[in-house]
């Protein structure tokens, strides 16, 4: 197809004339051309040897308001306003610009007065003038530039997490795993060493075992309660980072963040706790000295099984370092998802109360049931971390518990495998599925959900036997859930 004929295409002569008649006068850096390390930033700094010199102000005055969108608000009657220019435009210009970015007082007020933070579904943020652009780069004009570096809706959700976790800063990302991988890649140097705990989230383990070694990063895996082992690692080979969940999945182990943070501090190790299972309602590691806290916001924070995101919160210097690489790796959360997370968190406290109550009641009920051989939930004195849990958690341990169907008494037998399956299929309220954190209860026979393709020796090492059930309580009525469990256990 031939190119369409364009009207008023500027010919080369006109273009050249325009350039020579309007040489760029004041705005380009005029530093020594031989100095190829000079930047626009340093040029602008040179213009302001003292705040009173006024040279930069003078430059900025010549630049200001040339693209003002608020027609006559600046009182400069000689300048053409943007609104008027658009209004005189032709159809395609009208279809691109009319109605959008109307900054009349009514629209502006309505945006500010809306009870909910608006979804700012915009990848690009513009500057009203060159002055604003310069000021933005100098940190004097607070706005956003490009969606990969930040967005107002996303920031609202980040600020809510900061408040809940008592964190200096927070970075939201596209998934919990993105928060994990971006955090590890930015904070652990080449050939660094990290410590993680057994029972750590399976994909985290996979990343640590398969990808980090390519950068020479090695890892020690310790039992969550092994403080002496941790001390030994720090004293013998040193480490960059300690990273553990608390509570863990699916054994609901809890780590002694007080002692661990102390050890980490003594040895200059960054401590990171993944509290996806706890949420800040139940446990705030930063209060106990941890440097960073990580969440899969996909779970309790958003709370409705309808969105994916991750969050990293804590020390501002560390979050800022991760944010820089996040802008390169690009795992941004969509503004619409950020809105849902922000909305979900409004009910976090009341939801967690229900999750805590359901899990603790069910744990107590199952603990006495003859068809259940073991229950993993730290409110029970039989739990390996009962004492640490009692010390650090005052409201509950979240909605996830796990337990073992007795079957024929052999946890690795085919009979037990089948009994656990009959129990799961006998439930009428819980859905079969992975994940957790929503209003609906989810159940899984662990060996056929997350560990389907894992060799027996690996399952034996982790205690994932054939009867192990993970039960992620929703916020349904406690008695209804227990009645349902009672009926299903008759089949096991
Ligand atoms: C789900 C989960 C993750 C991963 O989060 P995604 O949002 O699924 O990427 C990490 N840690 C824990 C403890 C989780 O439960």
Describe the structure.
- By secondary structure, the protein is α/β, with parallel strands linked by helices.
- The protein has helices spanning 12-21, 40-46, 55-63, 82-87, 91-97, 105-113, 130-137, 152-165, 176-187, 202-210, 227-236, 257-266, 279-282, 316-329, 335-345, 348-367, 386-392, 414-426, 446-449, 456-462, 478-489; strands at residues 169-173, 193-197, 218-222, 241-245, 270-274, 292-296, 310-314, 372-376, 400-405, 431-432, 442-445, 468-472.
- The protein is built from 21 helices and twelve strands.
- The strands form two sheets. The chain has a seven-stranded mixed β-sheet with strand order 1-7-6-5-4-2-3, sandwiched between helices. The protein has a five-stranded mixed β-sheet with strand order 8-9-12-11-10.
- Helix 8 (152-165) packs parallel to helix 15 (335-345) and helix 18 (414-426) packs across helix 21 (478-489).
- The longest helix is centred in the last third of the chain and has 20 residues, at 348-367.
- The protein starts with 11 loop residues before the first helix and ends with a helix.
- Bound molecules: pyridoxal-5'-phosphate.
- The site of pyridoxal-5'-phosphate has 14 residues, from helix 9.
Got a strand count?
A: 12
Query: In terms of structural class, how would the helical and strand content be classed?
Result: alpha/beta
DSSP strand (E) fraction?
Answer: 5-15%
Number of helices: 21
In angstroms, what is the radius of gyration? 29 Å
Overall, the morphology is: globular
With strands numbered from the N-terminus, the spatial order across the biggest sheet is 1-7-6-5-4-2-3
Oligomer: single chain
Bound molecules: pyridoxal-5'-phosphate
Major sheet description:
7 strands, mixed
């Amino acid at each position: 197809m031939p190119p369409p004929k364009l009207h008023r295409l500027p010919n080369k002569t006109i273009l050249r004339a325009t350039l020579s008649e309007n040489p760029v006068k004041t705005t380009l850096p005029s530093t020594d051309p031989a100095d190829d390390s000079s930047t626009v930033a340093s040029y602008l700094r040179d213009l302001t040897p003292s705040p009173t010199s006024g040279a930069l102000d003078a430059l900025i005055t010549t630049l200001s308001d040339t693209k003002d969108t608020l027609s006559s608000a600046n009182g400069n009657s000689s300048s053409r306003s943007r609104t008027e220019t658009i209004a005189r435009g032709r159809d395609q210009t009208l279809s691109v610009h009319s109605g959008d970015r109307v900054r009349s007082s009514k629209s502006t007020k309505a945006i500010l007065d809306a009870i909910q933070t608006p979804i700012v579904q915009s990848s690009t943020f513009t500057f009203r003038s060159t002055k604003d652009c310069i000021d933005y780069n100098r940190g004097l004009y607070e706005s956003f530039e490009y969606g990969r570096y930040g967005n107002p809706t996303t920031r609202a959700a980040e600020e809510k997490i900061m408040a809940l976790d008592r964190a200096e800063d927070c970075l939201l990302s596209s998934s919990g795993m993105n928060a994990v991988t971006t955090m590890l890649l930015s904070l652990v140097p080449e050939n660094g060493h990290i410590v993680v705990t057994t029972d750590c989230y399976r994909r985290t383990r996979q990343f640590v075992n398969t990808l980090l070694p390519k950068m020479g990063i090695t890892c020690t895996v310790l039992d969550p309660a092994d403080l002496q082992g941790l001390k030994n690692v720090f004293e013998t080979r040193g480490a960059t980072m300690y990273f553990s969940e608390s509570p863990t999945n699916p054994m609901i182990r809890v780590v002694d963040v007080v002692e661990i943070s102390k050890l980490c501090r003594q040895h200059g190790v960054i401590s990171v706790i993944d509290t996806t299972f706890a949420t800040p309602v139940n446990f705030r590691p930063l209060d106990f000295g941890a440097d960073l806290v990580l969440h899969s916001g996909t779970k309790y924070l958003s709370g409705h099984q309808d969105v994916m995101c991750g969050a990293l919160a804590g020390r501002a210097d560390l979050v800022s370092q991760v944010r820089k690489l996040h802008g390169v790796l690009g795992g941004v959360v969509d503004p619409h998802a950020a809105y849902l997370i922000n909305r979900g968190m409004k009910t976090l406290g009341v939801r967690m109360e229900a999750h805590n109550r359901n899990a603790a009641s069910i744990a107590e009920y199952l603990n006495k049931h003859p068809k259940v051989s073991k229950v993993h939930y730290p409110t029970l004195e039989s739990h390996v971390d009962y004492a640490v849990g009692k010390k650090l958690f005052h409201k509950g341990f979240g909605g996830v518990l796990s337990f073992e169907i007795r079957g024929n008494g052999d946890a690795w037998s085919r009979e037990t495998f089948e009994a656990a399956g009959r129990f799961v299929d006998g439930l009428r309220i819980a859905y079969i599925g992975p994940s957790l954190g929503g209003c609906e209860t989810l159940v899984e026979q662990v060996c056929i959900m997350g560990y389907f393709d894992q060799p027996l020796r690996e399952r034996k090492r982790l205690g994932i036997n054939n009867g192990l059930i993970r039960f992620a309580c929703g916020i349904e009525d406690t008695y209804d859930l227990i009645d349902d469990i009672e009926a299903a256990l008759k089949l096991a």
